[in-house]
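Give me the fold.
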Amino acid sequence: MEVPTPCYILDEAAFERNLDILDSVQDRTGCKILLALKGFAAWSLFPQIRRHLSGVAASSLHEARLGFEEFGGEVHVTAPAYREEEFVELLGYSDHIVFNSFSQWRRFRPKVEEGKNDGEEVCCGIRVNPEHREVKVPIYDPCSPNSRLGTTYRNFKDAVVDGGADGDDPLAGISGLHFHNLCELGADSLKRTLAVFEEKFGEYLDGMEWVNFGGGHHITRPGYEIDLLCETINDFAERRSLEVYLEPGEAVALNAGVLVASVLDVVDNGMKIAILDTSAAAHMPDVLEMPYRPEVQGAALTGELPHDYRLGGMTCLAGDVMGDYSFSRPLEVGDRIVFLDMAHYTMVKNNAFNGMRLPTIAIRDPFGETRIVRKFGYEDYKNRLS
């Protein structure tokens, strides 16, 4: 079928290829891999994903509820801070809750203990900041100077020493540590980070039961060193006898979906510009945040093919531009433009700036048949406001 545009099309066969790779890592290491909902949360595909992965990683009450209701398995929650009025409900959805600071742990520890008395067994952890930088883009670097994410070694040690001096062990009730400092990186980055993590926090691991290596592992990217990843995990697990979790989001959905748009107009303001019925600002915001130039099916860099165009969106933002491309033939109104690798960090970041309609969501099965699972309209826009 020809889908209406704009439309995300999720490819079940591509997801299965990614999931098979992740499954192989679990089989070879005994680690558990979670789907990070911050990267991909299209729950129509949860039945397929949960056949392979152990659960979800959530960053909010709504993500935790979605994982609990639609995915099943383990629900791990990590956030910079928690809201008092939401915490009891959050406990009901969670298997693991990670606290960003000891002050958060002290504040909510009584509620955790009350929950245990009511039969809600939740594993608690502390997110640590190894202060080891691997990410080159500052906005995505959790270990950048003055980061709000994770407890540094100095603050961790001070909390343990001060707590011990008061006779109250701040690590009582903490069963694991969590670190996350990667973004679209390889196993070599994890290996270097893990060495720093152990050097700084190794003395506290003896009393733990699990460690979460966070996300940002580009495991399904062509050329990723899976053998090195497995060796790194196995070496750590054998030495520490701890359960290991990873929580990639992008690796699950990498190269597993496209965004199809249509050309609405072509103008010439010093160069030819094709106006599309989609938007970088509203439908693929990482294009502007990262920033990066998304790949387009059948297109090339400017000058490589005969016809150059700038592809722009429908909003009033002057910079709502996807990039400059060349095509083998002139673009015309009605032509379809297919943006590649649009399954992750797109739907979860969508917005309705300028009243833009959210793209339709469709799924293509392994036999090439496409079905629409969600269409959006005026009510979706109106109900976001008041």
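The first helix runs from residue 12 to 29.
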